[in-house]
Design a protein that fits this description.
alpha/beta, TIM Barrel, three-stranded antiparallel beta sheet, 10 helices, 16 strands, 23% strand, globular, disordered N terminus, EC 3.2.1.14, signal, Glyco_hydro18_cat
Length: 375
């Protein structure tokens, strides 16, 4: 397996080259070299993480995971002030996930926080933008996190505020202060949580940027880096059809994995604090909400014009075509293996995926992630 993967990675770094899309139906992914039935030995310090959602129905098999990030918990406000946080959805789901630690003693469970509201007993409010403006509210939130970690016997806190200084939806934000206040939040969390409690965040595929109308947006990765154990970079949804959402390098597209990692590294974040995101779904079109889980990609019917595992040799990623046209970009064991060679060559910490339910019943992608990280 390694010999073939080394050959693949040698091909990979003609990355500065840019040519027309290789959307040729039938250009296949390179073989089935990644024999995922063999489990690589765990390497201390490397991570293979999966987000597991409150609305999922599957109880994860953590054999090929070092961490589960439980998604999500949400903030509650009363009269404009932070009151508490609570798990989204049914508490029993969290208890089932937490119980996995009894059988899998290597497994770490982290609670992930969203900036959205979904619980029926909660209402839309100022969210993290409002919380972070107040030192008192930041401190109360940090103390609540510390208490929850201790009471529940979990291992970490993950902040998934998407994103300081902007929003993709209707969440409150303040481009003038959010970026700096996010840094203060992470500082307060680090100073409050026990040293053994991991602290992470879900990072945008870019470092901090100037806002279109003033202020700043995203996260100042260099400022936050001293306070966190690592950063889960969301290197997916970086383009929609007919572009690849998670190509290693496609300079002709809006963004790609190489530019993401370079952006963080140029900011001064150590490679060993960077975790590459892997989508367990295919991305079609943003406007239509077009996403399809990997498990469902495998079921697409060729009689309806679908061909899976077409290969883009520039981006080193597969794609689905329909009637000869690009349908969606995704990741498979071959692209994950190549990404593994790449990130380990840089000295990165590992990979995370969104999300567990997207994998097939055989665990094809999570095994591929494990073996790519632990090789």
């Amino acid at each position: 397996m390694k010999k073939i993967l080394i050959t693949s990675i040698a091909i990979l770094f003609s990355l500065s080259a840019c040519h027309d899309d290789d959307y040729i139906t039938g250009l296949r992914s390179p073989g089935n070299e990644d024999d995922s039935s063999e489990m690589a030995e765990r390497v201390e310090g490397r991570v293979a993480i999966s987000y597991v959602t409150y609305y999922g129905t599957t109880i994860p098999n953590p054999t090929y995971l070092t961490h589960i990030n439980y998604a999500f918990a949400e903030l509650y406000f009363k009269d404009g002030k932070y009151e508490k946080f609570d798990l989204q959805g049914n508490r029993a789901r969290f208890d089932q996930i937490k119980k996995l630690k009894e059988k899998y003693n290597h497994l770490k469970i982290t609670l992930s926080f969203t900036n959205t509201v979904s619980n029926p007993d909660n209402t839309i409010h100022g969210g993290f933008s409002a919380l972070c403006k107040s030192p008192e509210m930041r401190k109360k939130f940090a103390e609540d996190c510390k208490a929850f970690v201790k009471e529940e016997g979990i291992d970490g806190i993950d902040i998934d505020w998407e994103f300081p200084g902007m929003t993709f939806g209707s969440n409150a934000f303040d481009a003038e202060v959010d970026v700096d206040n996010f840094t203060l939040l992470m500082k307060d969390l680090r100073e409050t949580l026990n040293k053994s409690t991991e602290l992470t965040y879900a990072g945008y595929c870019m470092n901090v940027r100037e806002g279109a109308e003033g202020g700043r947006k995203y996260i100042d990765a260099a400022a936050v880096a001293p306070y966190v154990d690592f950063i889960n970079i969301m290197t997916y949804d970086m383009a929609d059809a007919p572009g690849h959402q998670s190509a290693i390098s496609r300079p002709d597209l809006y963004w790609d994995c190489q530019r993401s990692i370079n952006d963080y590294a140029k900011a001064g974040v150590p490679y060993n604090k960077l975790v590459l995101g892997i989508p367990f779904y295919g991305r079609n079109n943003f406007a239509s909400g077009g996403a399809i889980n990997y498990r469902d990609i495998l079921k697409l019917n060729k009689d309806e014009g679908y061909i899976i595992d077409n290969w883009d040799d520039t981006g080193k990623v597969p794609y689905v075509s329909k009637n000869g046209q690009f349908y969606c970009g995704y990741d498979n064991p071959q692209s994950i293996a190549i990404k593994g060679e790449w990130i380990l060559g840089l000295g990165m910490k590992g990979m995370m995926c969104w999300d567990y339910e997207g994998d097939d019943d055989n665990g094809t992608l999570r095994r591929a992630v494990w073996n790519a990280v632990m090789q």
